[in-house]
Amino acid sequence: MIKKYVMYLFLIGAISLNAQGLRTLGKKIINSKGEEVLLKGIGLGGWMLQEGYMMNSSGAADTQHEFIEKLNLLIGEEETKTFYSNWRKNFFQKQDLDSIKKWGYNSVRLAMHYNLFTPPIEAEPIQGENTWLETGFEMVDELLTWCEANEIYLILDMHAAPGGQGQDAAISDYDSDKPSLWESELNKSKTMALWGKLAERYKDKEWIGGYDLLNEVNWPLGDSVLRDLYVRITNEIRTYDSNHILFIEGNWFANDFSGLTPPWDSNMVYSFHKYWTYNDTASIQWVLDLRNQHNVPLWMGESGENSNVWYTEAINLFEDNNIGWSWWPWKRIATTVSPFSINSNPKYEAIINYWKGEAAKPSVLDAIDGLKQITDDLLVDNNKYYKDVVDACIRQPQDETHIPYKNHTIPGVIYLSDYDLGTNGIAYNDIDYANYSLSTNEYKAWNSGWNYRNDGVDIQTNTDNTNSNGYHIGFTQKNEWLKYTVNVEETGFYNFKFRYATEQSGGKPKFFLDEVDFAGDVTLGSTGGWSNFVFQTVSNKYMEAGKHILKILVDGNASYNMSSIEFLKSTETIPSFNVLSASTNDDEKSLKIVLNQPLNNQELTNNPFEVTVNNATRTITSAAIDPSNNRLIVIELAKYLFYQDEIKVSYIGNSITSTYNVALSNFQNKLVNNNLITRLLIPGKIQAEDFSTQQGLETENTTDTGAGQNIGYTDAGDYAEYLIYISESGYYNLNLRTAAESSAGKIEFELSHNEVTQSISTIDLPVTGGWQSWQTTATQTTLNEGIYTLKMKVLQSGFNMNWFEFEFTSSLSTEDVIKNGVKIFPNPFTDNFNIKLNNQQIIKDLKIMDLNGRLIKNIHPTESNGVYNLSSLKSGVYLLSIETDKGSFQKKLIKD
Q1: Taking the model in full, what pTM does it have?
Q2: What are the transmembrane regions (predicted)?
Q3: Are 591 and 597 in contact (CB under 8 A)?
Q4: pLDDT digits 0-9 by tens, 380-439
Q5: CATH architecture observed for domain 579-671
Q6: Are strands 786-796 and 268-274 parallel, antiparallel or unpaired?
C-alpha cells in the first residue's frame, strides 16, 4: 500500500513536471527540461478583437463595438453575426499555425476579447455573477491543439478586459459611455474570474506559455491600483495553476512599471512593448536595469508596424540582450507590415467611405457581398504573403547577407521590384527606411510607395503592359541601389533593355556585376511622364556564365521610375576593345580601369599609362591585371588620393589585348569616379564636433566666434576620432580652442594607420574662467603625409573644445623624412621589438648604446620579419642607432 502511494505521488509529480512547460529561473525563461527558451513569437491581433486601424476603418469606426453597431444599422444583426462568425472561422486556421512553425517562430500571443468568454456586466442576468460563453474557450482549445502538434507556445493575452483598460479606446474596445475596468468593481471581479476560469482549464497544458494579464493599460492610476489588481488576479490564477508564467505589463502602453516592483510572484516576467524608437541599447536600458535589479526575465511582448529594417534592428537588439519577443500583427487588411495582408475590395471600402461621410450609403446586398469577400480573403491561400517581413524577423537577425527574392536568369526579364532579400545597405540602399518618430519627435514617412514589400525601397503600382509585373521602383534618389542574384547561362555579349519613365532628363543609372561596371555610361532622357515607360537599350556588353550579383545604382541629376531590365543574347559582331569606366579603390592609393572585354594573360608595364590629379602628373608604382577579375587593370600610385581630387587616367599604347585578340583602344584623360570616403584635410582647421566616432562626449551650441557647436562634458577616457588626410609632410603648429571653468584639462593626439599608432602631442589646457570663455593654446608637432585616424584622447577632464588647427610651417629635412619613415614598436618592450621601414629603406647597421653614447651591443640586421630579440639586455633606457642606405639617426629605446 505504501509502495502504491509512493508510486502515485511519483506519477503526480511527473505529470506536474511535464505540464509545467515554461517557467522562470532567475533572469531566464526555461522549459521543462531546464533548457533556456528565447521566445520568438507572433501576435494574433485582429482575430478575437478588431482594432479600427486593422480594419482600415479608422475615423469611421475606431473600436470594435462601434464597428458592430454601425454594421447592425447597415445590414442587420443577423448578417452582422454571420460576418463575425465567418471572420472567426477563417482568420486563423491550422494552416496559419503550420506556417508559423515552418518559418521558425516558436510562440504565438493570442489577443483575447473578454466578450467571447463572458458577457459584459450590464448583460449578466444576475448582477455580480458570471455567465460563461463557449465561443472563446473553444477557439483557445482548437488553437492550443494546433500549437501542441507544432510544439508552439501559446501565450494568452487579455487584450480587451471587461470594461476596457485604456483611454486609447480601440486597443481594448473601451466604451466611454460605460464604466471602464478601473471604474467598476464588477469589471475587476469579472476579469479576475475569467483568468481563474482560464487557469483552471489550462493549468496542465505544457504548451500554454503563460498568461499576459493585461495588455497596454493606459489610464491614470497612481502607483498602487494596477499592482493591486494584478495581485488579485495572480491570487485567483494561483488557486488553480501554480505552474504557468505570469507576464506583467506596465501602465502607459506597457512601459511604466511604477508601483509594480518588486515582483510578488516567483514565476513572473516583466513585459514591455517597443514601437517607433531608435534600436540602440539606450532605448531599452531602463528595462535592462529592471531585470538586473529584480532578477526577473524580460519579454518584449509587442512590437511591429514599421519597416523591415526596423524589425531586424530591433530583434538584433532584443536577442543580443537575451530578450524574447512577439511581433504584431500576423495579418491585417491592406498592409505591407505583417507576414500576411488581407485584400480589401471596393464594396467593403464603400462601407467605410459611407461611415466617414465620403460616399453614398451602399445597398444591403452590396455591403454583404463586400463583407463576405473580406471573410473569404481571410484564408491564408487568399492572403498576400510578405516573405520579406518573415525574412527580416527570422533570418536577417542571424544572417547579414542577401539571398534571392526570386530566381533571375540571363537571358530573361528581371522585374526590379524583385531585388534580393536583405536589409538596407546589404540588399539595397535607400535614403529613408524606418520610422523612429518616438525618438525624433517627428514623423517622417520612410516609404513613398507602400506597395509589394516592406523595405525602404519605394515601390509603386503601374499599368504598363510591357515587361512589367505591375510594380516599379519610384522616388529614386542619387546613390540608392538594388542588388539581384542572377544566373548567366552563357558567357558572351548581351544587349539589355532598361524600362523606365521620367519627366526629367539627366538620369545616369550604373550597372554592375559583382561590383564591377559592365555597361559603361548610360544616360536617360525624358519620356514625357512618370507613367510613360520606354526602353533604353544598351548593346554588346560582356557577361560571364555563372552566378553573379547584379547591382543597379541610381546616379545622375534626375529621378526616374524603373520597372524592369531584359537581357538578350547579342547577335552583333564583337565590339571594339574599350575602357568602360575608371574609379578609385578603397585603399585610397590606387584606381581600377574597367574594360568591356576580358584581358589576355599578360604582364603590364607602367609606361603606357598616365594619371593626373588636379592636372598634376602622379607617379605610378605598378600596373597589373586584377587577379580576381580579368576585365580590370589596377594602377597603384606612390601617394594617397583625397576625396575632392579630380583624377584622370590615360593610355597610349598597343600592347594590351583581350581574349578576343583585340588591341585596347587608346584613351586620354578618362575621368576617374572618385568614390573615396570623406576625410578632413590637413593643413586646416577641424571643428571638434566633426568626429567620425566618439565615446563619452556631448555637443552643445557655442558662443565662440563663428558660433556652431563645441564638444563638452569631457571625462578621462573619453575620446573623439577624425578621419584625416595630411597632404604634406612637415612641421606644423597645432592650435586648440578650449574653455574651462575651473579645472585644467589635458589631452593627447594620436595618429593611427595600418594598425600602427603614434602619439604626436600631449597638451595641457588652461583654466579660462568659464565654459564659454575661449582661449587658444599652441604647440608644435611633426606630421607625415598620408591618410590616418586622428584620435583626441581626454587624459584629464573639465574642458570644452571648439576646434583645433594644424598650420603647416615648413617641410621636413631629408634626415627627418628618413627618421619618420621608421617605426619601432612596442616601445617600451620586454623581450622583442619590431622595426618597420617606410620609404623603401634598407638597414645596414644597428647598435644599442647607453645614454652616454657607449656601445652596449651590435645587432645583425634581419631582412625577414624585422623582429629583434634583446631578452638578455637589462632593463633601462637606451639609444638605438640605425644606419640605413638613406642615412643614419638615433631613437630612444626602453627595456622593461
Answers
A1: 0.84
A2: none
A3: no
A4: 999 999 999 999 999 999 999 999 999 999 999 999 999 999 999 999 999 999 999 999
A5: Sandwich (2.60)
A6: unpaired
